[in-house]
Specification:
The chain is α+β, with helices and mostly antiparallel strands. The protein has a six-stranded antiparallel beta sheet.
């Protein structure tokens, strides 16, 4: 079993957000975003990466949270096997790397994240997230300045390129 702590996310607000896949309404690709909350919306992008979101709105309200980075905490040998070329904190640092390490693809689209092999759990007792930072989303063109990206300050698994990453984490 693999497990990790989510350390970075981005929010997307459906029809009110030009950066959201649901901005122009439902399609075959984004159908899961319009479904029940707590389900996965997995899509393929740039012809090479899968990304996973958690549907966060009520049925018909296509809000979603993109999982951008996870710090591996359990099953470390399996995490390392997924990407032996990367340091542990970089294996799931970024939405594409995260899906690659977990083996997620479009076949996982629509999974119930409370009752399938892919699950989200609340943090255990004593968990203290530290300082949560907020800033603009990255890797998109529309609505780039919306402060809908959240990350744990000082967490080495937070994604982003070299110098920019250092500025954001401070």
């Amino acid at each position: 079993m693999l497990a990790g702590r989510i350390v970075e996310v981005e929010a997307y607000l459906g029809p009110d957000d030009p950066a959201s896949h649901a901005f122009r309404g439902p399609t075959a690709r984004n159908r899961s975003m319009f479904g029940p909350p707590g389900h996965a919306y997995v899509y393929f992008t740039y012809g090479m990466h899968h990304c996973v979101n958690v549907v966060a709105g009520d049925v018909g309200v296509p809000h979603a949270v993109l999982l951008r980075a996870v710090m591996p905490t359990r099953g470390l040998a399996l995490w390392r096997a997924a990407r032996p070329d990367l340091a542990l904190e970089r294996i799931a640092s970024g939405p594409g790397r995260l899906c690659r390490a977990l083996g997620l693809d479009r076949s996982h689209d629509g999974l119930d994240l409370s009752g399938s092999a892919l699950r989200l759990h609340a943090p255990g007792p004593g968990f203290r997230p530290g300082v949560i930072r907020r800033g603009p989303r990255i890797g998109i063109r529309a609505a780039r300045t919306a402060p809908f990206r959240f990350w744990l300050a000082g967490e080495p698994a937070v994604s982003g390129p070299g110098p920019r990453r250092a500025r954001m984490r401070g």
